[in-house]
Structures are given as C-alpha cells and as structure tokens.
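Input record (Table S2, row 323):
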Amino acid sequence: MKSLRHFSVGLLTAATLSACSAPTPSSIRQTFRYPLVNGLVPARMTMVTAWDYPKNPLLDTRLDDSTLSREIKWGYRIFTNTPGEAPRFAPGKMSCNNCHLNGGQRERAMPLVGVAGMFPEYNRRAGRLISLGDRIVDCFLRSQNATGRLASDSAVANPADDPALPTPTSREVLAISAYLTWLSRGATMGTNPSSRGRNTLAPATLVPLNALNRSKGEQIYTDRCVSCHGADGQGVAVGDRKAGPLWGPDSWNDGAGAARIYTLAGIIRYAMPYLDPGSLSDEDSQHVAAYINSKPRPAYPFKSLDYQVDPLPSDAVYYPKRK
Ligand code: HEC
Ligand code: HEC
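Output record (heme C complex):
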C-alpha cells in the first residue's frame, strides 16, 4: 500500500508545519507549503492536505475568552466531528467536513468561506428566503439525517414542530453559524464569492438519467473509490480520517442535496478521488453518482413539503413522481 504510506508522511508533515507556523496577531492564516487560492486549499491537492485548515479558530490567538469566541471554536469542532460534538442531531456517521472538505476551506469542495454574507437567499427547495441558520438546519436534517432521531410514531407535520430536531436557535446551529460567519470576516456582504457554486456540472455535460449506467458506475467505484470508501461504502480509516458512509443507515438521507444524482456527481467530479481530484470525466462522475444513489439510505420524512413552489428537479430520484 504505497499510497497509505504516503498519507502518513503527509500527516506528519502537516502536523509539523502547523506546529511551527504559530499564528501571529496580524495573520490568522497558517502557512502551508503550497499557495492558497483566495484563502482556500487548491482543488488539485491530494489527501495529504486533508488535515490542513487555512483558518483554524483553535489556533487563532486573537480569539479571546468571550462567549462568541468560544462558540466559534465549538462550531469548528462540530463541523469537523459532527457525530462526536452534536450527537443529538447526527445519529449517523457523517460530518459536515466529509463533504465540505478542510473545514469548508477547500476549493471545489463546496467551500463556505464568504458565503455567510449571501443570506438570506431564495431557496428553490424551500420556495422562500432562507437564513444561514435555516441552511445549516437543512444540512443537519438531511445530510446528517437528524430526522433519524424522530420517534417511529412521530406524526408531526413539519420538522420545526418536533423538539428532537434542530432549529435556527439550537445551540449547535448557532455555534456553526458563528464559525461560518467568522470564516467570512472581511468578505463583502452580498457579493457572491467566485469560489461558490463551482461543484455544478455544466448543463451541456449532463447525461440523461435513463442513459446512466449503474454497472458502469459500480466498475468505476471498484477501480477508483473502493480503497478509501470500502466495498460496503462505509469508509476505511486513513490516518485519523475516515470518509462518511456513502449509503446505508448511517449516510445522508434521501432528502439531502447529495441524494440528487447530478448534485452528487458535481461533488465527486471536482473533489474526488482524493488522490487525484478532477481526474474523473463529467460522464464517469455521473455513472458513479447514479450507482451510489441507487443504494438504500434513510428516508427523509418531510419530502412532500419540498419543491412546492418550484418544480421537483429530475435528478431528485428518491422523491415520488409528481403530477
Ligand atoms: C452529504 C454531503 C454533505 C454534508 C455531510 C453536509 N453538507 Fe452542506 N451542503 C451539501 C450540498 C450538496 C450543498 C448544496 C450545494 C449547492 O447548492 O451547490 C450544501 C450546502 C451547504 C451550505 C450552503 C452553501 C452555499 O454556498 O450556499 C452550508 C452553509 C452548508 N452546506 C453547511 C453544512 C453544515 C454546517 C453541515 C454539517 C452540519 C453540512 N453542510 C453537511 C452537502 C453536504
Ligand atoms: C484516497 C482516498 C479516497 C479515494 C480514492 C476516494 N475518496 Fe472519497 N473521500 C475520502 C475521504 C477521506 C473523504 C472525507 C473527507 C474528509 O472528511 O476530510 C471522502 C469523501 C467523499 C464524499 C463525501 C461524502 C462522504 O460520505 O464522505 C463522497 C461523495 C466521495 N468521497 C466519493 C468518492 C468517489 C465516488 C470516489 C471514487 C471516484 C472517491 N470518493 C475516492 C477519501 C477518498
């Protein structure tokens, strides 16, 4: 396993580097051995940089002992270890960081730097303006499958009605908001960061859903993904890092953005495989996404409330067809 040895060397180097590059009051950015792109880890870096956080609140000497500073730090810890730090809203094994790599600070892995100042924003799934808190709640409810905690006999009509589910005023949601808003300090309010929305495949490259081939996807998975994600899709430990489950009861639920084939393909296309990101073709990333999203995953119980204003997207394959 040549590649795995490579990881541990990378891990040691990363640890050594962060230890030597103590942040100074004028710069909270850590120094790495490669140039950052607008403050983000470049998209083409391999897994040796998985442990790098360009801005790490735990190392920022400017953060004092105020409540805000403490919550920013906790928000970062929740983001990077969601089941450990926010267990009541993360019954599965996903962390925010599994999809938003490097603490939300990696190019083309749905980075969250500069995003806070874009909310409230119209959201098609909700059919209304949503706040940053609403957006975080949505990733908890769906990507983290917080609804997996609902009692099996729960009959609430709306997630906001069940005290077991996160709301924009839940402590964990506020702490993540504090971390993400801190990541956006210095960005211009209302100016879309150029790094945003770059995990979307160009419309001209989309393969019609009925032409996507799951067996081809499975072959790509076996060739390019299985070493880190495992034959069972549950993730293999690499150093102290482990990918989140790609399917099954501990994965994201069927109401998540990643449960849409083209959305998932856009994540994979630019962020994976982690040893050579960007190397899959547009088409192959769609076959492998179709394979992953043909697998069972937890059911999001409030799907009928989604897309009531805007049309149901064609790639939301777990939703019942609508007239
Ligand atoms: C299974 C993968 C996955 C996980 C896990 C996940 N997210 Fe997301 N997240 C997404 C996708 C997909 C989007 C939508 C991206 C888009 O619309 O282009 C998104 C969008 C977001 C956005 C809005 C970004 C923007 O530019 O508007 C925020 C904020 C966010 N997630 C925060 C979180 C937080 C906090 C967690 C953990 C509680 C989390 N996410 C966990 C996949 C994930
Ligand atoms: C070298 C190891 C490696 C390879 C190869 C690899 N991945 Fe990953 N992948 C990871 C790690 C590690 C994470 C989580 C990143 C983190 O938490 O920092 C991840 C995250 C993901 C995620 C986010 C959701 C989740 O459950 O973690 C998806 C989707 C994904 N990989 C798909 C793929 C696909 C598809 C392939 C093959 C084309 C692939 N990966 C190849 C290591 C790898």
